[in-house]
Write a structure and sequence with these properties.
five-stranded antiparallel beta sheet; alpha+beta; Nucleotidyltransferase, domain 5; 2 domains; SH3 type barrels; globular; seven-stranded mixed beta sheet; 18 strands
Length: 405
């Protein structure tokens, strides 16, 4: 087998920003050393090169994107006939698993969209209750009349919408550096009826997502029952025990299988002596960059905290601005005890005695608090936290190639 076919691929764009077919890392290095191209990274952390001169041609081969959607996590893969280009593990912001799961008094994670909407409704009910004079008859209480019928709109729930928007952003960003020819989306299986009318919000979100990504490339629905057979044929491993693990085996491998279904099919055959079914087509799974995407867990600016502090003071709460020139979500680094600490700004302390900024990792666990004078800005907030890993194998065995039957 040709060794170059087993290498990962580097996306390429022309001087005008038009995506071209990816190339090998060795060729990309030669281009950069000869000043024929310039290396860059997009907002998802994917390395690509931009040519300094117009290419000799614009012919492209099929590049298929596969999306394996879950409740809390989504895997996205970009596959060609001979190589896997990139893998993504997106941690969806609509519903974060609460730390109290399994306990008696389970609550929503307040940093998820569902948790924020629940708290928003709670505060709204409190404010309404404060301005209603219940000593008066119901007809003359201080109720605001409805200005419009807000039950006629067909819209997505905020949690589902935020999840689909994150998946859409990944595809939009990659479409800027890859000539995507097709998007293969797994059916979520949410066509359930309730009380004889309507379908599940997950299905509504799926249809909205497909309508949006169809602007990038044609969308093909793949039955969720067929994902396993493509995954097994490619020799990929599935981790069904803990899908929150940030490894390709949880969701990204299924996304590869969905994308590979464009190149290999299980078809029937008939000959003079026999008949049956066999695999037809060719596809190769190769090492590819594995990228974990999360969103900064920020709170919108509110007037004050819900509870009073000592002295009857309501402290400021939320917002993304700091008095030190940084914004929440900015990617920064700081030298601490001889080590380089990299992370995202997530808060600050500004008192007469202490002035610090808090730095968080991509899972939004606080690394520490540091003097803002020692912190250096690397990149302004893109509303994403990116954890890049080196190119790695996505299967339990060497890459396979399937010839035509």
């Amino acid at each position: 087998m040709n060794k170059t076919n087993q290498a990962t691929r580097v996306p390429v764009i022309d001087p005008n920003g038009k995506p071209l077919m990816p190339t090998t890392p060795a060729r990309a290095r030669r281009w950069i050393e000869a000043l024929k191209a310039k290396g860059k990274r997009n907002k998802l952390g994917v390395f690509y090169v931009q040519l300094a001169h117009l290419p000799s041609g614009y012919e492209t081969q099929p590049i298929v994107a596969g999306t394996d959607r879950g409740k809390c996590f989504t895997g996205i893969a970009f596959q060609t006939k001979l190589a896997t280009i990139a893998l993504f593990h997106a941690c969806l912001p609509g519903f974060y698993k609460s730390k109290n799961i399994g306990k008696k008094n389970q609550t929503l994670d307040r940093q998820s969209v569902t948790g924020k909407m629940a708290k928003k409704a709670e505060l709204r009910r409190t404010r309404r209750g404060q301005r209603i004079d219940r000593s008066k008859p119901f007809q003359i209480r201080n109720h605001r009349e409805k200005r419009f019928d807000n039950r006629r709109k067909k819209k997505l729930t905020p949690s589902v919408l935020s999840n689909r928007q994150m998946e859409l952003r990944v595809l939009n960003e990659m479409a800027l550096i890859l000539p995507i020819s097709e998007i293969r989306d797994e059916a979520c299986g949410g066509n359930t009826k309730k009380n004889g009318k309507g379908i599940s919000p997950v299905t509504v979100g799926q249809e909205w997502f497909r309508a949006e990504v169809s602007k990038i490339a044609p969308v093909v629905e793949v039955d969720s029952f067929d994902t396993g057979k493509y995954r097994d044929r490619l020799g990929l491993v599935k981790d069904k025990n803990n899908k929150s693990k940030q490894i390709p085996e949880t969701h990204a491998n299924d996304a590869i299988a969905l994308a590979a279904s464009h190149f290999i099919q299980y078809q029937s055959f008939n000959t003079a002596n026999t008949h049956g079914h066999d695999w037809v087509g060719e596809c190769m799974v190769t090492p590819a960059p594995f990228i974990v995407l999360t969103r900064p867990k920020l709170f919108r600016r509110k007037l004050y905290q819900e509870n009073y502090s000592k002295g009857g003071i309501l402290k400021r709460l939320g917002g993304t601005i700091t008095p030190f020139g940084f914004r929440s979500g900015d990617y920064v680094f700081v030298s601490y005890k001889g080590d380089m600490v990299r992370g995202w700004i997530g808060g600050f302390t500004d008192t007469a005695k202490t002035k610090n900024v808090s730095i968080y990792d991509h899972d939004w666990s606080r690394v520490g608090q540091f003097n803002p004078k020692n912190v250096r800005l690397l990149q302004r907030s893109s509303r994403l936290c990116v954890s890049r890993q080196e190119a790695r194998e996505s299967c339990c065995c060497p890459p396979k190639s399937f010839g035509k039957a």
